[in-house]
Design goal:
The complex is a heterodimer of chains A (67) and B (476).
Chain A lengths: L9 H17 L3 H4 L1 E2 L2 E2 H26 L1
Antiparallel strand pairs in A: 1-2
Helix pairs in contact in A: 1-3
Chain B lengths: L1 H25 L3 H6 L6 H12 L2 H14 L1 H29 L4 H8 L3 H34 L3 H50 L2 H11 L11 H14 L4 H9 L3 H33 L9 H9 L2 H34 L1 H7 L2 H23 L6 H25 L5 H19 L9 H19 L5 H10 L3
Helix pairs in contact in B: 1-8, 1-14, 3-8, 3-11, 3-12, 3-14, 4-5, 4-7, 4-12, 4-14, 5-10, 5-11, 5-12, 6-7, 7-8, 7-14, 7-16, 7-17, 7-18, 8-12, 8-14, 8-16, 9-12, 10-17, 11-12, 11-14, 12-13, 14-16, 17-18, 17-19, 18-19
The chains are: A mainly alpha (67), B mainly alpha (476).
């Protein structure tokens, strides 16, 4: 099955999996009712994702370039 | 309003000046006109990408949406775009930069050689981006009308003429230079305004507490069904890796690594812009103006009530910068879809360089003026309007592009099927002709993926030469 795909760098594949997993977890219904400072946790998770996702990708690409 | 008008006039003059200066460099060269000679550095490209994405929707629209439908729904939409950039950098940036052509149609036409692909992709781009441009023009019009007192139609016309002039004559070089200038202006105004309110109140949490005590709907998830939130997110997350005006930026980078870095640096700046807008400016707007009839007016009302003329003038220029920095990139992508993707072969065979230059310039003018005509009767809630246009592109292009780069069994039949069926499903579900009860983007991506799988598994295997060629694109 995997042979049908072009190979991807392991760390990059992990980042991709993390981003997809974080996004899926953020959309679970449990975060919609709970609130922090008047806003649903879902909103805070989206905000965290907006900072985390490019920061994580930058970190990985920079480390890779240095190696 | 004289001071504000002078500031905006200075800004317009600077944009046209940049376009004229760039026109000397790009004349007679497709490489210079479409991809700025492929030598844009990482930081410059990052700022230009941020400015291209941060449209009128990202200032006027983001605040209007947060004001009317709450912050969580708004962040779901804009977080999708931000996540789309790491996805683009992981899945397509290096490969498309290594491919080394001008447009997404170039790649799809090469990967799935078919007249349907060569024709349908540019047509979809022109339809979706004309919708996108109209939404941007509305933002320009209401900004200038509210803060400069210039009638809506006149504002639209002036802004359109300015960006059509510098795009049509200066190509990607002019778009890049103006975008850097416009991106900096946007960051200064939105972050500066946000920080000013923060300094007045103390912390973002305190500001949120105060605003949600008065208007609890601002922080709640209650306005739309679950699939709609997911739909917003999915549209942008899948659009960014394939959307032409961003992909063209990948082609302008010096190399694959530079393209990847600039995409993510751009997103850090963009996130700062969006988060400052929704967490620091919208709560103030909700407290000061709780019953606005047109939610898209919230930023302008806040600027009008809180700041002196000089700052309001810079703010108007910043909103116009946001509109124009996106619209110029969209217009260039539309222009390339027609004069490079659709007419390119005919022009290269039969036309002189002067005729090719004239067609490029003329195409930009025709699209710009058509969008202007449509924008005289603008739609409501601009973020949702252009998001539907972008959804059409991601629903049709995402699967063929990603599978074409990563799946060895992706073949011509699968690519053509995925493209056609994806576009068709999006339109049918969006207009309720096929009421599936889920977001159009989710339906179109699923059907497009199924079509690709069916074509790839049941159709003839891809040639060895093609697989080797794609393998080379993945080279470091």
């Amino acid at each position: 099955m995997l042979k049908s795909f072009f190979p991807m760098d392991r760390v990059e594949a992990l980042v991709l999996a993390f981003l997809v997993a974080f996004s899926v977890v953020s959309f679970l219904p449990v975060w919609r009712g709970a609130e922090i400072a008047g806003m649903a946790v879902f909103g805070w998770l989206m905000a965290a994702l907006m900072v985390l996702s490019p920061a994580l990708a930058l970190l990985v690409f920079n480390r890779k370039e240095k190696r | 309003m004289l001071l504000e008008r002078i500031l905006v006039l200075l800004y317009f003059t600077a944009c046209i000046g940049i376009g004229i200066a760039a026109s000397r460099r790009v004349r007679g060269s497709g490489d210079e006109y479409w991809v700025a000679g492929r030598r844009i550095g990482t930081w410059v490209n990052a700022m230009a990408i941020m400015a291209s994405l941060a449209s009128g929707g990202s200032i006027i629209g983001v605040m209007g949406l947060a004001y009317s439908q709450g912050i969580p729904a708004t962040l779901a939409l804009f977080a999708g775009a931000v996540v789309g950039f790491p996805l683009a950098s992981l899945l397509v940036a290096r490969e498309l930069r290594n491919f080394g052509r001008y447009t997404i149609t170039d790649f799809l036409g090469y990967r799935y050689p078919s007249r349907i692909v060569r024709t349908l992709v540019p047509i979809l781009i022109v339809i979706a981006f004309t919708i996108y441009i109209v939404a941007q023009l509305k933002a320009a019009g209401i900004t200038a009308e509210t803060l400069l007192g210039i009638p809506f139609e006149q504002s639209l016309t002036i802004a359109t003429l300015v960006f059509v002039i510098y795009v049509s004559f200066g190509g990607m070089v002019a778009v890049t230079w103006t975008d850097v200038f416009q991106g900096l202006l946007m960051l200064v105004v939105v972050l500066g305004t946000g920080l000013w309110f923060l300094w007045e109140v103390g912390t973002p949490l305190e500001l949120m507490r105060r605003a949600t005590a008065v208007a609890p709907e601002l922080g709640r998830v209650e306005h739309r069904p679950v699939s709609s939130y997911l739909g917003y997110f999915a549209i942008w997350a899948t659009a960014i890796p394939v959307i032409p005006h961003i992909v063209m930026r990948v082609f302008t980078a010096r190399d694959g690594h530079g393209a990847r870095l600039s995409l993510n640096l751009a997103m850090l700046a963009y996130s700062a812009l969006i988060l400052a807008a929704v967490f620091l400016i919208v709560p103030v707007g909700k407290l000061e103006f709780p019953d606005l009839a047109d939610a898209d007016q919230v930023f302008l009302k806040v600027m009008q009530s809180k700041f002196p003329a000089l700052i309001r003038g810079v703010a108007v220029a910043a909103v116009l910068a946001a509109v124009m920095s996106t619209t110029d990139a969209l217009l260039l992508a539309c222009s390339s879809a027609i004069s490079h993707d659709l007419l390119g072969n005919i022009l290269r065979e039969k036309a002189s360089q002067r005729t090719i230059d004239l067609v490029r310039v003329g195409t930009a003018w025709v699209i710009g003026l058509l969008a202007l005509y449509w924008a005289y009767s603008p739609p409501e809630l601009i973020s949702q309007f252009y998001t539907a246009g972008v959804g059409l592109l991601s629903g049709s292009l995402f699967v063929p592009v990603i599978a074409g780069l990563w799946w060895k069994k992706a073949n011509r039949i699968g690519g053509v099927l995925a493209l056609v069926v994806g576009a068709l499903t999006y339109v049918l579900v969006h207009f309720q002709i096929l009421p599936l009860g889920i977001a159009p983007i989710l339906a179109s991506l699923a059907v497009s993926a199924l079509a690709m799988a069916a074509g790839g598994l049941l159709g003839p295997p891809e040639s060895r030469e093609m697989i080797e060629a794609i393998e080379k694109l993945h080279a470091k």
